[in-house]
Amino acid sequence: MTRTLAIASFTVALAGCATTQIDAQWSNPEYAGRSLRGAPVLVVCEAPELTLQRICEDQVAGQIATLGGVPTRGSQAAAGTPAAGTDPYLAAARKIGARAIVRTTLGTGAIVAAPSGPTVGIGIGGGGGYRGGVGGFGGISFPVGGTRVSNAYTSETAVIDPATGALMWSARASSSASEDATGQITELAKAAAGALRQSGLF
Questions:
Q1: What is the residue extent of each domain of the chain?
Q2: Residue 25 region by backbone torsions, left for phi larger than 0, else alpha for psi between -120 and 50, else beta
């Protein structure tokens, strides 16, 4: 029982130390000095689930607005717009006059499993009823309620020039495992926005 509680406490401690960081980034020198502040920007997200895609889109659009851009969500602009070239978002961006596409791709990194319920311990004891007899005890413990799975999400954010399809800037961010997917996506969006601010594009 003690060992199980120690493991559970360690798991909680790790969750409390969750961090989000930029792992790598790249800037196209041809766009050095260009600013997108005040410019219309198409924000699109690619994710394994529709719910995550919409959460991502909302969070990234909010961060772009904070940086001074004028975001339009891809789920609105791309409706009924045919794909153009090698990027399905180019036509949508040109349709609204966007000066950039901010495309974020969500991925899943590490997966962490932990007990999802309380732990039950069963003690086994015994003793001798005669002189010189010996007694002893033992026990086993097991979780009740199955296993809880937490994902660690990653994101890759790219800023694309709609006029040419050229990559202007890109960065990869990662987060520690947590059950709170919305919180992770929010932190990933903030991390990317911070890197974008430092890049000089906003």
A1: 21-111+151-199
A2: beta
Q: What is the pTM of this model?
A: 0.72
Share of the chain above pLDDT 70, in %: 66
Top pLDDT among 136 and 65 is at 65
What are 84's strand-pairing partners? 87
User: What's the CATH class of domain 21-111+151-199?
Assistant: alpha beta
Q: Is the Cβ–Cβ distance between 37 and 69 less than 8 Å?
A: yes
Amino acid at 11: T
20: helix, strand or coil: strand
pLDDT digits (tens, 9 = 90+) for 137-158: 344 444 455 566 678 999 999 9
CA angle (180 as vertex; 176, 181 as ends), nearest 5: 80
Helices of type H across the chain: 2-16, 50-67, 74-77, 90-95, 181-199
Q: Percent helix, strand and coil across the chain, each rounded to 5?
A: 30, 40, 30
